[in-house]
Amino acid sequence: MQTREKKDALLERLAETFTNNNKVFVLVNVMIFISIPLLVLLRFRFGVDTDYAQIILFVFMFLFSLWQSKNIYFRLPQNSFDAKNKKMNFLIYYIYVPLLAPIAAILIVGLVGRMFVKNSNPQGITNISSNEIFISLVTDVLAGAEEIWRYSSILIIYLLLHYGFRKLSKKKNIKILSLILSFLLSSFLFGWMHTFAYSDGWINLDITIMIGLMGLCFATIMFITKRIWSAILTHIVFDVYTTFNSYDSSIVSSILIVTCLSISIVLLLTKRKGKAAINT
The CAAX prenyl protease 2/Lysostaphin resistance protein A-like domain covers which part of the protein (predicted)? Predict the structure, then answer.
């Protein structure tokens, strides 16, 4: 019962962070929220070359996120699993989570996706050559900016629900429901936008569901860690894993083995230091 109350309080606190932002911050997020879908439509449905515009926008989004991340993104209490050591926190949120979370996301999406989707590879991902790998990796890094769009979309959708139903939104349960809807709608939009890149139609349910579920996993990582850059790095690593897997699957296996070994070593050393401190 207490755990549920804590979760509800955390969700309500998160909802409040969305309504306590200055107008400039909200306007920039509106611009980000609108710009990405617009560029996707122009490129894949109207044949407009938007590559340079997209790169400039993504760089701006990264810089904006760096500038605002400490002050704005998820002004919430520390996680219960936060370490006292800042270096350990850095390892957890910016190394281990990004390296391991994509595997968990793949398993979850694969398991849930099989229930609703006929084609397990709706994007039609194929093997790539060594000549294509560099371009793919650059694209993977830029794709991390999609997590900044995700935050913007959750924020804007929540504000629309909050002010659209102002009388109801004062109630705690309505705030939490609006927040959950914002996460779900944002993930749906994320999946739907990928329809234009991987199909000729205006809607492809297989793509929308599979990529939407993946987007929901990234949003959950953002919420759990309370760090947007943890989600950004997770998204980048996920795409890098996909690229390496299309080139040589043994690369991904090697990365995971090294990561698991390093985690074991760090935990072992931390435990020994703790015992040594107690003995002294």
Answer: 165-240
What is the percent of the chain where pLDDT is above 90? 32
Residue 252: inside a domain, yes or no?
Answer: no
The answer to the question of residue 177 being in a domain is: yes
Q: Kindly report the pTM of this predicted structure.
A: 0.85
Give the pLDDT confidence score for residue 72 in this predicted structure. Answer: 54
Query: Confidence class of residue 150 from pLDDT cuts 50, 70 and 90?
Result: very high
pLDDT given for residue 213 in this prediction: 92
Q: Is the pLDDT of residue 115 over 80?
A: no
Q: Give domain status of residue 255, yes or no.
A: no
Residue 103 confidence (pLDDT) above 80: yes
- Boundaries of domain holding 51: 2-247
Domain count, the chain: 1
CA dist., res. 188 & res. 255, Å (int) = 31
